[in-house]
């Protein structure tokens, strides 16, 4: 290729040189032709000069002594000019004939000069004067005729030569143009050929490349390139084929890996060892195409075949126990790889006998660097176990150990979780009990009030005689007693572990209930209660639980206000949620407390409180797919907003109260 | 190509400028027709150029058709000087108020000329007396060697009336013709300039066998350049200097070669004493001399 | 002046005589020149006293010695009073006959020594001048000299040319024309081209002159000669004026007829020499025209 380029460049260069050379040559030729024409015209001038001189001189001769005669100086100058003209003609190159004529002309001029001089200088002898004039005139006219003849011939020659020269120039011009055109076309032709030679194979390759890009791997081009292109194309073809093969290899690998993945996935998602073994056995036997598959695991001194397994009867499985040392014996030399016995039955451990093994592979399973077992695959249907099988199974083996570890860990976790749950429940119960305790004291306190009332009024009754007043007082006694019962009911209810019952509740009602519950408590305080209940759609929730939440929050608000302030309770609904705002003008919640607000057992109440209230409330609300938001400003007050969706709460776990 | 036009135009322009303080517009110097006038002018062209360059003044030579013309044409043509012949120089000094400046000296060194009186060897003539009744050929009334000398000679020999002494007297017009006339027998006696006879003899050695020189003049000063007396003295000095130093200048040497001379030698009035002697002997009154 | 005087005396004498004389005329050759001489001669006689009564017996022999002698003898036997010969050949032949009759010649090239009773008109021309002019016209390497060994004057001229040849630096080819008819043969023989041709005053040669001129014209050979007429076609020629020759001869004859012995009458060398230059011929031949020839020539043919 390179050579070809060099050659064609050389050709182009040679072409250029030829063109340039021709151009220069013809320009030279044209220049010299033009020079010739110029010279010829110069000659023309000389020639005409000559004729004019001859005529002038002749005229001088004939007019001498007349009125038209010229001064002697002038005549002398004219004659010498003629002489010079003739001599200058001689200076140029002429044909031999012309030279001879010129020579004779020079002689004639000499004679003419002699005659003329004699004529001019002769003493006045009329006869001689006339004779001399005639002689001079004769020579002169002879001269003139000669000169005119020569001039005529010269003129003709001049025309011929000029014509030739002009023709020459024209020819040169044509040749130059032709050369230019020809060179141009040849150069274009060469360039096109050259580039074509380069671009064609390149196009082919580009096409082939495109084909490959579009997925046609292994596409080979038939294009036969020359030289380097041939090599290139051959390489390309090879590459394409290699690509396809590689691709196939990769695909195969991918296939294998996906198989592998399939298997490993399954036993990674298995939660028990048994599951793992099952998945392993079935999966491997399937993608290796082997009859038997299972896993041997170290158990004390023996490696025991785990169950379930593929292709082995449960008896065979339980009978397959290989002494540790034997297996280790095989493990040692093949540590990094697997132990493969494709057709050599002798190397098999004796325990394998009787299992109808044609070919066998142990793929070592390690745990923390120690051999803990081996994946046993036997009787691969399509020939022996290949390197690839070994590799794949090695990966699998790694995964198996990991999976088994995972399974174990999972078990651990599960049992731990169980314990935790139990603890949690007990904790809740404790909290509840504590709350109950508090509640009890509350209730006790609460019941105390109505009871006091009742006692009071009873006292009064003792002294009352007015039936009307008696009735009023009895009504009040009844009301207060009912109230006391209600409180007790609530308490009982509260302490019961009730299962969740999700119904449509009216939040406002619940709130009203709760407010009632606390109003007695509030009687002794200057705390004002403001309510603003918006239109509330029914909310799917457990009413008791909600009650617990509201109660908790309100209790906290009351506590924060310390017997004076305002308690605001508003409800509204928007965008699928209900918003219950409980605000107080208490001392507010400091920043460092805010983050720990819903932490179990976290409380700012010194002796009182279990620290579980808000955490349980939070859990309950969470259980209802809602949330509790808190805004607070120290010294100003706080606002707790409970947000609850209309819809079903999610599948509830038993966080909070109930089972 | 334009260069060919520019230079002459510039030169012409320069030349057209009033010559910065030059005394003359140019010098015109006459030449007597000693030979073919064209050839003579040609021969003098290099000298013309040389003098023009050296003097910084345009020098032009003008040739005359006849010896005698020089006296008439000198003033008419506005000449500043001329190369006068032997006799015409004396005439000019008398009539034109010129003075000699320089003359050409040939390689043989003399700068003088001699006159011969010739006859054919077989004519049997050897004295003036024997010429009686014969045909005589002279050159021109205004030449020393070709007329004045033989005149003087004959007078010295006792011949009083020249025209009467000979059966026929004619003027050949040139020295060459005079020689040929004698050679051909068309004349019995002739008078010619020595160097012309020598030149012809060199061309045709036979002439020596046929011609006899029966008398010879004294050495006379040859062609001399005489200049008007009233020429600007500075210019005259420059001219003199240019001429006298010419042989030291390479271009000058070239010009001299063409004139077949070695150099220019200074000329003085005294050189012309022999001519004046001849004139006297010939009984000529310069003032009234008719040279036509 | 003198010539005129003698003529008058002669006429007087002759007028005294009163008797008719018979004169014998011998032409060396019947060429135009001699005819001109004769014409002038006759005219002159007629002018003279008693001249008109003279009777002539004209002999125009063929130019060879036998014919000339015959002519002389014939005249001798005719008992003429005088013999007039035109040209050297006739003159010498007449003398040789020893007829005792006085001879008057004309048109004779001077160096001929008259022996005995001879007088007449002769001329002298410098051969070397012709050679010189030929040399001016063209480069002469070989000069052909046309002469006749039987004519003394032409032999003499030929010898003169030969003498001068070494001085001029050319070779001489002697062309002896015994009979006019031999001309072409004479030109064809001999090696090399002639540079120039010299025509002597030989009668034979002059008879053949037209053919000679044709040949030299065709060969472009410049020619020079003696005694040739001006329209002959020869380039350069010295010719003694035939009229003068004739007249002088006539005068001499008158003296003889008056009784003076021929030997006592000094011959006259005629000075009327024409240098003729045929420029037309020269131009036709494309030759150089020497100006001194143009100026020196007494006659130019255009």
SSE blueprint and pairings:
The complex is a heterotrimer of chains A (659), B (292) and C (302).
Chain A lengths: L1 H62 L8 H20 L4 H26 L4 H88 L14 H41 L4 H16 L1 E10 L2 E4 L8 H6 L1 E3 H8 L6 E4 L18 E8 L2 E11 L6 H77 L3 H29 L7 E3 L1 H17 L4 E6 L5 E3 L1 H19 L4 E9 L2 E8 L6 H4 L18 H11 L3 E7 L3 E9 L14
Parallel strand pairs in A: 8-10
Antiparallel strand pairs in A: 1-2, 1-6, 2-3, 4-5, 5-6, 7-9, 10-11, 11-13, 12-13
Helix pairs in contact in A: 1-2, 1-4, 2-3, 3-4, 4-5, 5-6, 5-9, 6-9, 9-10, 11-12, 12-14
Chain B lengths: L2 H14 L10 E5 L5 H19 L3 E5 L5 H8 L4 E4 L1 H10 L2 E8 L6 E2 L1 E6 L14 E4 L5 H13 L5 H4 L2 E4 L3 H10 L4 E5 H10 L2 H5 E6 L3 E2 L2 E5 L4 H12 L5 H9 L4 E4 L6 H9 L11
Helix pairs in contact in B: 2-11, 5-12
Chain C lengths: L1 H16 L4 E6 L4 H16 L7 E5 L5 H14 L3 E5 L1 H9 L6 E7 L8 E6 L3 H11 L4 E6 L4 H17 L2 E6 L6 H6 L7 E4 L3 H5 L1 H11 L3 E4 L9 E5 L1 H17 L9 E3 L2 E6 H6 L6 H6 L2 E3 L1
Parallel strand pairs in C: 1-2, 1-3, 3-4, 4-5, 5-11, 6-7, 6-8, 8-9, 9-10, 12-13
Antiparallel strand pairs in C: 10-12
Helix pairs in contact in C: 1-10, 2-10, 3-4, 5-6
List keywords for this structure.
heterotrimer, A: 659 residues, alpha+beta, Four Helix Bundle (Hemerythrin (Met), subunit A), Beta-Lactamase, Heat Shock Protein 90, six-stranded antiparallel sheet, 14 helices, 13% strand, elongated, C: Rossmann fold, Rossmann fold, seven-stranded mixed sheet, six-stranded parallel sheet, 13 strands, globular
């Amino acid at each position: 290729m390179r050579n070809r380029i060099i050659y064609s460049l050389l050709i182009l260069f040679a072409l250029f040189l030829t063109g340039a050379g021709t151009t220069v040559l013809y320009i030279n030729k044209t220049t010299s032709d033009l020079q010739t024409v110029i010279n010829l015209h110069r000659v023309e001038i000389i020639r005409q000069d000559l004729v004019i001189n001859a005529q002038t001189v002749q005229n001088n001769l004939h007019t001498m002594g007349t009125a038209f005669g010229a001064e002697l100086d002038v005549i002398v100058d004219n004659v010498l000019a003629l002489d010079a003209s003739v001599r200058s003609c001689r200076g140029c190159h002429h044909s031999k004939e012309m030279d001879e004529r010129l020579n004779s002309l020079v002689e004639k001029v000499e004679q003419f000069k002699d005659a003329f001089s004699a004529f001019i200088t002769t003493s006045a002898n009329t006869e001689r004067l006339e004779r001399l004039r005639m002689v001079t005139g004769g020579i002169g006219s002879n001269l003139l005729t000669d000169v005119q003849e020569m001039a005529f011939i010269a003129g003709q020659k001049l025309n011929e030569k000029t014509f030739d020269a002009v023709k020459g120039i024209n020819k040169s011009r044509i040749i130059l143009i032709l050369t230019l055109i020809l060179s141009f076309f040849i150069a274009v032709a060469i360039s096109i050929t050259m580039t074509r030679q380069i671009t064609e194979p390149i196009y082919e390759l580009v096409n082939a490349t495109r084909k490959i890009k579009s997925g046609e791997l292994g596409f080979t081009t038939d294009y036969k390139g020359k030289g380097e292109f041939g090599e290139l194309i051959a390489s390309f073809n090879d590459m394409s084929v290699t690509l396809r093969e590689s691709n196939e290899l990769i695909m195969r690998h991918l296939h294998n890996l996906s198989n592998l993945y399939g298997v490993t996935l399954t036993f990674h998602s298995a939660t028990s060892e048994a599951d793992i073994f099952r998945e392993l056995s079935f999966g491997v036997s399937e993608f290796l195409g082997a009859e038997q598959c299972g896993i041997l695991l170290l158990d004390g001194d023996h490696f025991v075949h785990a169950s379930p397994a593929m292709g082995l009867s449960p008896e065979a499985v339980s009978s397959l126990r290989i002494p540790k040392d034997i297996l280790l014996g095989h493990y040692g030399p093949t540590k990094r790889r697997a132990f493969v016995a494709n057709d050599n039955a002798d190397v098999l451990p004796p325990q394998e006998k009787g299992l109808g093994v044609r070919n066998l592979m142990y793929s070592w399973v390690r745990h923390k660097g120690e051999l803990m077992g081996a994946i046993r695959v036997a009787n691969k249907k399509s020939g022996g176990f290949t390197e690839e099988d070994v590799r794949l199974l090695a990966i699998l083996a790694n995964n198996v150990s990991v999976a088994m570890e995972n399974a174990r860990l999972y078990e651990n976790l599960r049992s731990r979780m169980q314990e935790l749950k139990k603890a949690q429940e007990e904790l809740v119960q404790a909290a509840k009990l504590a709350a109950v305790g508090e509640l009890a004291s509350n209730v006790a306190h609460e019941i105390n009030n109505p009871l006091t009332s009742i006692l009071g009024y009873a006292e009064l009754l003792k002294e009352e005689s007015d039936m009307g007043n008696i009735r009023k007082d009895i009504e009040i006694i009844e009301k207060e007693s009912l109230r006391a019962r209600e409180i007790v009911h609530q308490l009982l209810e509260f302490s019961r572990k009730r299962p969740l019952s999700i119904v449509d509740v009216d939040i406002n009602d619940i709130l009203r209930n709760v407010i009632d519950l606390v109003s007695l408590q509030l009687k002794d305080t200057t705390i004002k209660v403001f309510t603003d209940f918006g239109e509330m759609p029914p909310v799917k929730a457990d009413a008791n639980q909600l009650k617990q939440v509201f109660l908790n929050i309100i209790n906290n608000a009351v506590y924060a206000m310390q017997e004076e302030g305002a308690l605001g309770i508003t409800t509204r609904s928007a965008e699928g949620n209900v918003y219950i705002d409980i605000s107080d003008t208490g001392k507010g919640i400091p920043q460092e407390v805010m983050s720990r607000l819903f932490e179990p057992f976290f409380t700012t109440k010194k002796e009182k409180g279990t620290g579980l209230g808000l955490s349980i409330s939070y859990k309950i609300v969470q259980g209802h797919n809602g949330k509790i938001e808190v805004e607070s400003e120290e010294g100003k007050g706080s606002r707790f907003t409970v947000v609850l969706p209309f819809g079903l709460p999610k599948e509830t776990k038993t966080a909070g109260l109930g089972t | 190509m334009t260069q060919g036009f520019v230079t002459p135009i510039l030169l012409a322009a320069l030349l057209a400028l009033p010559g910065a303080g030059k005394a003359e517009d140019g010098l015109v110097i006459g030449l007597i027709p000693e030979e073919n006038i064209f050839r003579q002018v040609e021969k003098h062209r290099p000298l013309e150029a040389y003098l023009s360059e050296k003097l910084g003044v345009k020098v032009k030579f003008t040739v005359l058709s006849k010896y005698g013309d020089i006296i008439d044409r000198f003033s008419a043509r506005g000449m500043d000087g001329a190369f006068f012949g032997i006799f015409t120089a004396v005439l000019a000094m008398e009539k034109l108020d010129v003075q000699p400046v320089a003359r050409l000296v040939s390689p043989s060194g003399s700068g003088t000329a001699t006159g011969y009186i010739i006859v054919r060897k077989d004519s049997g003539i050897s004295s003036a007396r024997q010429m009686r009744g014969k045909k005589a050929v002279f050159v021109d009334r205004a030449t020393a060697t070709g007329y004045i000398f033989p005149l003087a000679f004959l007078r010295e020999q006792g011949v009083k009336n020249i025209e009467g002494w000979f059966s026929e007297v004619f003027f050949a017009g040139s020295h060459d013709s005079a020689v040929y006339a004698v050679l051909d027998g068309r004349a019995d006696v002739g008078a010619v300039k020595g160097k012309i006879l020598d030149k012809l003899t060199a061309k045709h050695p036979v002439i020596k066998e046929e011609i006899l020189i029966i008398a010879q003049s004294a050495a006379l000063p040859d062609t001399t350049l005489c200049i008007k007396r009233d020429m600007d003295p500075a210019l005259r000095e420059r001219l003199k200097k240019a001429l006298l130093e010419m042989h030291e200048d390479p271009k000058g040497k070239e010009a001299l070669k063409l004139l077949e001379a070695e150099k220019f030698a200074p000329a003085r009035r005294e050189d012309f004493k022999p001519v004046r002697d001849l004139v006297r002997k010939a009984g000529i009154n310069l003032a009234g001399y008719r040279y036509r | 002046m003198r010539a005129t005087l003698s003529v008058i005396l002669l006429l007087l004498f002759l007028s005294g005589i009163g008797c008719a004389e018979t004169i014998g005329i011998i032409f060396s050759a019947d060429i135009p020149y001699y005819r001109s001489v004769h014409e002038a001669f006759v005219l002159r006689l007629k002018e003279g006293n008693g001249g008109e009564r003279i009777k002539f017996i004209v002999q125009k022999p063929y130019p060879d010695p036998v014919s000339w002698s015959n002519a002389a003898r014939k005249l001798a036997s005719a008992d003429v009073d005088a013999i007039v010969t035109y040209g050297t050949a006739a003159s010498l032949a007449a003398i040789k006959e020893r007829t005792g009759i006085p001879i008057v010649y004309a048109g004779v090239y001077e160096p001929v020594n008259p022996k005995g009773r001879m007088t007449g008109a002769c001329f002298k021309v410098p051969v070397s001048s012709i050679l010189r002019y030929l040399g001016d016209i063209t480069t002469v390497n070989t000069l052909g000299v046309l002469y006749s060994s039987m004519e003394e004057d032409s032999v003499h001229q030929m010898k003169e040319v030969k003498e001068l040849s070494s001085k001029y630096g050319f070779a001489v080819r002697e062309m002896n024309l015994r009979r006019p008819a031999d001309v072409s043969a004479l030109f064809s023989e001999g090696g090399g081209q002639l540079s120039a041709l010299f025509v002597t005053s030989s009668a034979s040669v002059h008879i053949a002159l037209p053919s000679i001129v044709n040949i030299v014209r065709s060969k472009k050979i410049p020619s020079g000669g003696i005694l040739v007429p001006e329209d002959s076609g020869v380039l350069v020629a010295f010719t003694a004026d035939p009229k003068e020759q004739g007249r002088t001869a006539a005068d001499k004859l008158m003296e003889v007829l008056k009784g003076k012995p021929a030997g006592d009458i000094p011959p006259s060398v005629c000075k009327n020499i024409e240098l003729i230059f045929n420029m037309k011929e020269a131009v036709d031949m494309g030759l150089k025209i020497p100006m001194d020839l143009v100026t020196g020539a007494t006659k130019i043919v255009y």
